[in-house]
Amino acid sequence: MTALARASTAARRPLTWLTVAVLAVLITLVALPLAGLVRATLSDGAAPTWAEVLASPMSSALFWEPLGGSLLVGLGTGLLSTVLGAFLAWVVVMSDVPGRRVIGVLAAIPFALPSFAIALAWESVFRNDLIGGNAGLLVSLGVAVPDWLAWGPVPVVLTLAAHYYSLSFVVVAAALANVGGDLVAAAELTGASRLRVAVRIVIPAVAPAVLSGFLLAFAEGVSNFAVPALLGLPVRFQTLSTRLYGAISTGDTVRGYVLSILLVVVAAAILFVGSRITRGRSYSTITGKATRARTTRTGGWRVPLAVGAWAVVTATALLPGVVLAVSTVLRRTNSLEGGFTLHYWVGESDPSISQGMRGILRDPIVAQALGGTVGLGVAVALGAVLVGALAAYVVRHLPGARPAKGLIGLLSYVPFLIPGVALGAAFIAQFGAPVGPFGSLYGTFAILVLAGIAASLPFAFQTATTSFGQVSAELDEAAVLTGASGPRRFGRITVPLVSRGLANGGVLVFVTMVRDLSVVVLLVTPATPLLSMMTFRYASEGFTQQANAITLVIAVISVAATLLARRLERTHRSIS
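RE: above sequence
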């Protein structure tokens, strides 16, 4: 068969057209925004901005100091998150500490909360009078809070670690659960001490998971915007995320685009170095059929370990919610002396309270933002799952065509390397001005949805790939023998079998979008209000009760959706 004939045959296959459509969508969502970002920094008159940012008298304040701040925050977040996550994972999976199942549930909650929820709770307790405004609860009770504990890198790192240690916990716990109990028992029967068993068997087995958890927390810490903005900017502690946000929000877009590209490069380099460290090395110490992880008897350490584990999950999963809830019913910001009120929730406009602002449940703008937030989460979840599922289906079923498969996989993974603020800047660069017959998307709901789908693609694609991989090819082959067409096989066999896995992924995408601020902070306008942006604005303007109340609403939505996802996952496992 000639090449022309083969091409003609391929063109008649529905899968070929589906591949073309998937590639077109991925190029539009990922490649074009990045290309637009680069093009904007190399256009006429813009190229000198690179030298200005990297090598000029202003470069220290523009790039190098924020870079140092980002790396400091990333390193601190990565190390502390790894220590806390690995400790809790060991307690839950391998120890005999009482209540470890509940500890495991609580340890996963902080990641479901917005990162700025813990930052706002920290500010409500530890804020001092360094920058003016209402001080926190400790100061109102007569406790002197040092500046380094109220503002700057220390509270930024502590609050980010309290949020992102859940990543390390989940990754390390999964690795510990796969450490065969028979292998540990055999080592103990030979007389090996617990320390030797840990050093020679357990630690090597989970080393890749520990490193992965560190890299994830490091990258998230480097790219996070909300926490450094709330706890760092008031004392001029800058990171690359806050610096590029400041540049773009003040109209210095080209400089902001340059900083966005540099932030992408930094985040990608971190993850690339981490992958190179583990490439080609074998950490495997387990062979044969895996058995249940062996429980370690902790003896006299049982109570101290339980106290430590409960202290961590209480401080990170329970106390922030309690602090935020209490702060919303205080008549005076962060002070018990003024008494309590429900005004910030259900009150009518009163000029003597909060400059006449209504309670959030009576505010039509908050109601509009709530609808926009939920609508955005649903739209992004549906879009990301659809694109991810189609991309995974093409990669799994497309015969040959390695370049097409490789390109789909690459474009589906690249957004993982792009921090949210930088991705938002890329969408402004590409879609913020009219392109041919298409008008500008800036200020519309559409650009929020497109940016959200792009940011969620890596997770949606990975979830879909896993779900499709669990479906045996024999089922599809049997349907082929009955004469069923490709679309019919996909709709009647594949979709029902992968639906629960895709639904679980969709719920988690929804949670991420509802609580996210970094992706949307540059894209939101008064015409498209969102709860996360209202929280940030209220917190920046000193309306603490309103900011904390809206944060609680976001937290309730996120935690409820996360619990739903866990239930779907358990149901899926029990059925399969």
